[in-house]
Amino acid sequence: MTADSQLKPQNLPQHVAIIMDGNGRWAQRQGKPRVWGHKKGVEAVRRSVSFCRELGIKSLTLFAFSSENWRRPEDEVSTLMQLFLMVLQSEVKTLHKHNVRLKIVGDLSAFSDKLKANIAKAEQLTADNTAMTLNIAANYGGRWDMVNAARLLATQVQNGTLTPADINEDTFAAQVQMAEQPELDLLIRTGGDVRISNFLLWQAAYAEFWFTDTLWPDFDQQVFSEAIAAFVNRERRFGCTGEQIRQLATLGKG
Ligand code: IPE
Ligand code: IPE
Ligand code: MG
C-alpha cells in the first residue's frame, strides 16, 4: 500500500500532539545562536498547521515551552517570550482567516500582563472557528495539568457540588486541559530524544508514539506524512486481543 492510499479520513488521527524539539542543535550545527533555531521553528509550525488543515485533523497540540524551560539561560527565556508574543500578534489573523481556533494550554499565570492580554484577545477572536483547533502548550507540564485538575475537583467538593465518591476517571478527565477535544491519538517528538519531558501525561495514556531524529526546523510535510502513515499501520488494541480488534473491524465494515 502506498502512503497516499493509507491516508483515508476514517484511519487518520483526530488529535496529534508534537514535542517540537531540536531547535537549539539545528542552529548550533550551522554556527548560529540557539535562538536562531527557535525563529526558524516558526516556519515548521506554519507547515504543520497547514498539513493538519489539509488532512482534516481536528486538533493539533504543539509543545512550545515547558514548565521546566524556565531553567534555561535568562536571555534564551526572554527571547522565547518575545518570540511567542510576536508570533501570536502576527499569525492570529491568518489562523482566523483559515477558520482555526487557537487555544493556549498551560499555566498562564507566569506570563507578563501584555502576553496574557494578547492570548485572551487571540483566543476570543478565534473562539468560534471550526476547521480545527491549534493548541499551543506554553508553560505547560503534565504534572501541573493533573494537579490543577485535582484542585478544581477539590474546589467542587468544598462547594458541595461534588462528593469524593463522584471523583472517577470521567470527572477527572473533564478537568484536564483539552477535555472538550478528541482524545490524543498520536504523539510525535522530533530531535532524536525518546522521552515525554512532562508533556501530556494524562492525555497520552493510549496515544501512539512516534519519534524522529529530524530536528524541528527541518520538520516538513514529508516527515509528518511518515508519522501519519506509521500511525495508520498500527493496531490499537486498548487492552483487547488482536483477534477482538480485527473482529470489530470486520463487523464495522459489514
Ligand atoms: C525545542 O528546542 C524548543 C524549546 C524547548 C523551547 P530546544 O531548544 O530544546 O532545542 P535542543 O533540544 O536544545 O536542540
Ligand atoms: C521539551 O523539550 C519541551 C519543548 C519542546 C517545548 P526540552 O528540550 O525542554 O526537553 P528535555 O529538557 O530535553 O527533556
Ligand atoms: Mg530540547
UniProtKB/TrEMBL annotation:
It catalyses: 8 isopentenyl diphosphate + (2E,6E)-farnesyl diphosphate = di-trans,octa-cis-undecaprenyl diphosphate + 8 diphosphate. GO terms for biological process: cell wall organization; peptidoglycan biosynthetic process; polyprenol biosynthetic process; regulation of cell shape. It comes from the Bacteria. The keyword Cell wall biogenesis/degradation applies. Its cofactor is Mg(2+). PANTHER family: DEHYDRODOLICHYL DIPHOSPHATE SYNTHASE 2, DEHYDRODOLICHYL DIPHOSPHATE SYNTHASE FAMILY MEMBER. Homodimer. Belongs to the UPP synthase family. This is Ditrans,polycis-undecaprenyl-diphosphate synthase ((2E,6E)-farnesyl-diphosphate specific). The gene is uppS.
